[in-house]
Backbone:
């Protein structure tokens, strides 16, 4: 039998008792903060997850095949089913807590478990965003207090704000936003916008045709091959015209490039980050709202007894691993145990609730603790 | 006995038999041509196992054969742990096949994976579903597309006649094996400039999971000596 989780002995006996007690403690803490205990389903509609995360979700979630029900996936986390439950029957504002297993496919060669437990807290609230961020973070921090963990925080909203503030076309802005969670791809886009790449002969011919007009592009298509498939001639022509427009755009300015570098390099404390983003806002008016958010969050954290002057902050934190978070993000790790995943993580995911509801969605922030990991590092 | 797995029929088998010949190892089919049996001459302690080429990766992985001849494409696709469990003993110089990404030739605006990513975004906005890529190489394609930063696509399974899926409106792009590119051209498809996922050829693989006793090790050393290969030491 393969190790069932981060605490392989927790299937029975002493470790199971410890795990149950810890889970009960955490849930009791969340319920005392006003959360309703929920029991979301484990089998989720595969299409929903594929739409949200794309084809890559198949490398992370287990897919089941049922000729009658279609493809289902074992929940890779609780966020999606909790949002769906809330959308279907929740009152606002709402606080939920839950405990149970999630299932994750791991990379080849990885010895990380494919099944482990999470205990979590989710807050859906249209009111004070900073207060909601601070509430969730403070709850998780309190539950882990005194255990010698290292905390990290960040805010995906700062980079998003910077992209919004750039003096570029909406087309380029959309391209950057779309790849904001893929740092390598994002950097390639920035480089291309800063200095146009060398062009192939075929691309030069296409742009020449586009400058002549749609008729010339249509002729070029006709010369190439018969149009087949779902993507229509009109779509090919439209993209050719868009490529022509893109080729005429001025390169990304040095000031805009500098702003992106400043934001991706931004690291310090919650308090210093608020000051740094405020300074960026002097040159880029669009950054004001992000600076305001950081300032309000710092105050809300301070009101809960957490010192913004000592709480670490890095704008890049969570950019690759926590892909549906779009605002405040946080994590707790054991620096002495790099073999273990974060003990806890969480953040704001307004865009995810919007995507799931197909409309405006509801602002949401949440966090989870991995109780087996917490116990595994502490020994028996 | 060292069990050597060969494809049970076809061009791949003929080329493999010819390849072993150069080490004076003669593989003879026995019985009628339809019977899947044979023997190995010119070396002691090697037993022939004839298998469907597609099953050889699985048999190597399970350790039911010690060595086997099959395409790298099949091994890389089917065995995520192949680097740990198998050794590539020799690339055999035949069975060349490139796994590539192709789109309709009428897509004059698409030359690269980067173009495909941009088209995928626009396609999803226009049609309400993600751009479909037909392939049987799901794992290799997914890894490649992730590395290239392509989002908003989905894989649709295609076990054969993949070049026809676009015309049949069940896919917008394909990822498939090609050797000469003729089938692609006949179906009005073109390969993306940076769309080479894997350049595959027939390869002699060694299984690390098989039982390697003294007799099998001796046969391996002898076989490598005759073929001019460096004999690896299988793990215990």
Residues:
């Amino acid at each position: 039998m393969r190790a069932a989780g981060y605490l392989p002995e927790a299937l029975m006996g002493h470790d199971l008792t410890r795990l149950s007690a810890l889970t009960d403690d955490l849930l009791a803490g969340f319920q005392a903060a006003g959360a309703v205990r929920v029991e979301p389903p484990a089998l989720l509609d595969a299409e929903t997850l594929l739409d949200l995360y794309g084809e890559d979700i198949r490398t992370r979630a287990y897919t089941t095949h049922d000729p009658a029900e279609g493809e289902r996936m074992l929940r890779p986390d609780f966020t999606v089913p909790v949002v769906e439950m809330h959308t279907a029957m929740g009152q606002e504002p709402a606080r939920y807590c839950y405990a149970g297993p999630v299932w994750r496919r791991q990379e080849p060669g990885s010895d990380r478990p494919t099944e482990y437990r999470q205990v979590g807290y989710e807050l859906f609230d249209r009111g004070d965003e900073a207060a909601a961020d601070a509430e969730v973070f403070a709850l998780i921090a309190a539950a882990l207090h005194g255990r010698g963990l290292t905390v990290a925080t960040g805010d995906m909203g700062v980079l998003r704000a910077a992209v919004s503030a750039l003096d570029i076309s909406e087309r380029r802005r959309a391209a950057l936003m779309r790849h904001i969670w893929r740092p390598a791809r994002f950097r390639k886009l920035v480089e291309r916008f800063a200095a146009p790449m060398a062009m192939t002969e075929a691309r030069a011919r296409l742009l020449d045709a586009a400058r002549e007009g749609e008729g010339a592009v249509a002729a070029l298509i006709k010369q190439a091959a018969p149009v087949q498939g779902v993507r229509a001639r009109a779509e090919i022509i439209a993209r050719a015209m868009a490529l022509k427009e893109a080729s005429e755009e001025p390169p990304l300015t040095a000031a805009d490039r500098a702003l992106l570098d400043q934001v991706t390099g931004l690291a310090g404390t919650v308090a210093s980050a608020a000051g740094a983003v405020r300074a960026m806002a002097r040159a880029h008016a669009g950054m004001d709202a992000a600076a305001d958010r950081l300032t309000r969050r710092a105050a809300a954290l301070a009101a809960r007894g957490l010192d913004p002057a000592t709480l670490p902050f890095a704008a890049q934190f969570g950019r690759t691993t926590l892909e549906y978070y779009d605002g405040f993000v946080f994590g707790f790790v054991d620096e002495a145990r790099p073999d273990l995943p974060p003990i806890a993580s969480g953040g704001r995911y307004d865009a995810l609730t919007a995507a799931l509801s197909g409309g405006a969605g509801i602002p949401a922030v949440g966090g989870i603790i991995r109780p087996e990991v917490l116990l595994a590092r502490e020994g028996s | 006995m060292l069990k050597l797995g060969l494809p049970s029929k076809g061009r791949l088998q003929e080329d493999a038999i010819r390849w072993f010949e150069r080490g004076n190892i003669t593989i003879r089919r026995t019985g009628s041509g339809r019977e899947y049996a044979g023997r190995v001459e010119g070396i002691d302690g090697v037993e022939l196992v004839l298998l469907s080429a597609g099953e050889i990766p699985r048999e190597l992985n399970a350790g039911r054969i010690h060595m086997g001849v099959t395409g790298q494409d099949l091994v890389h696709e089917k065995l995520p742990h192949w680097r740990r469990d198998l050794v590539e003993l020799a690339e055999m110089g035949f069975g060349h096949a490139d796994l590539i990404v192709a789109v309709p030739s009428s897509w004059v605006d698409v030359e690269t994976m980067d173009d495909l990513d941009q088209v995928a975004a626009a396609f999803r906005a226009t049609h309400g579903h993600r751009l479909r890529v037909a392939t049987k190489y799901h794992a290799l394609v997914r890894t490649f597309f992730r590395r290239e930063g392509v989002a908003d696509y989905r894989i649709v399974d295609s076990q054969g006649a993949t070049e026809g899926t676009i015309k049949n409106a069940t896919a917008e792009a394909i990822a498939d094996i090609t050797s000469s590119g003729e089938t692609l051209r006949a179906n009005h498809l073109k390969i993306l400039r940076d769309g080479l996922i894997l350049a595959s050829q027939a390869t002699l693989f060694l299984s690390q999971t098989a039982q390697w006793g003294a007799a099998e090790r001796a046969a391996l050393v002898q076989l490598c000596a005759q073929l001019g290969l460096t004999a690896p030491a299988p793990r215990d």
About this structure: The radius of gyration of chain B is 21 Å.
